[in-house]
Design goal:
By secondary structure, this protein is of the alpha+beta class. The chain folds into three domains: 59 residues, OB fold (Dihydrolipoamide Acetyltransferase, E2P) (Beta Barrel); 68 residues, DNA polymerase, domain 1; 50 residues, Helicase, Ruva Protein, domain 3, CATH 1.10.8.10. Strands 1-2-3-5-4 form a five-stranded mixed barrel. Helix 2 packs across helix 3, helix 7 packs across helix 8 and helix 8 crosses helix 9. The longest helix is centred in the last third of the chain and has 16 residues. The protein is elongated, with a radius of gyration of 19 Å. It starts with a strand and ends with a helix. About 5% of the residues have low confidence.
Length: 193
């Protein structure tokens, strides 16, 4: 398995890059998210995922480990292959994917080209418990936001409320008002539980 490639950026387009490393040029498929994050520097490090097929090997590249982790989670969902996962990561950011899964925002996921209602529902169901594995820092989530949501969920759990229902409500309230204080977040969540 090729976990990353470090080398000289030879070519960069919105869908692929070519990186030369030790005299070998690697063609790597990328998402628009990675395209926007790769600076036009001569030397880069790109995290990779190798898809092996009977007739070819295809490299997919990511600017961050967290995006690669989300890509791998997406392709673990029945009906989502590497090309569809790349389309998803080109349509919305890794953070938005995580937020949509947390808040069970089927409409947000369904708005992505090539994703229907059943696939969006399956994606949310299958990734709901796995989404916590993603590195919050790499996903540009402030640690303060994560702590506020985590503390609110902990408080609701201690009060005996269902974890999944609490997560959905806390996420929805938080994303409607990101400046909310912890006490207010808990209070509003209690009103909706």
């Amino acid at each position: 398995m090729i976990t990353y490639i470090k080398g000289r950026l030879i070519e960069k387009t919105p869908t692929k890059i070519v990186v030369e490393s030790s005299g070998i040029g690697y063609e790597i498929n990328i998402s628009l998210n990675t395209f926007e994050r790769i600076l036009d520097e001569e030397n880069i490090k790109i995290y990779t995922y190798l898809q092996r097929k009977e007739d070819s090997d295809i490299l997919f590249g990511f600017s961050e480990k967290s995006e690669r982790a989300i890509f791998q989670q997406l392709i673990s969902v029945s009906g989502i292959g590497p090309s569809t996962a790349r389309t998803i990561l080109s349509s919305i950011s890794p953070k938005e994917i995580q937020d949509a899964v947390w808040s069970e925002d089927i409409d947000r996921i369904k708005s992505i080209k090539g994703i229907g209602l059943k696939t969006a529902q399956r994606l949310v169901i299958e990734l709901k418990d796995k989404v916590e594995l993603f590195d919050k820092k790499d996903l540009d989530l402030s640690s303060e936001m994560y702590d506020i949501k985590k503390e609110a969920l902990l408080a609701l759990s201690v009060l005996g409320f269902n974890k999944q229902k609490s997560e959905k409500i806390v996420s929805k309230i938080y994303f409607e008002n990101k400046e909310i204080e912890l006490q207010e977040l808990i209070k509003q969540s209690l009103n909706k539980l």
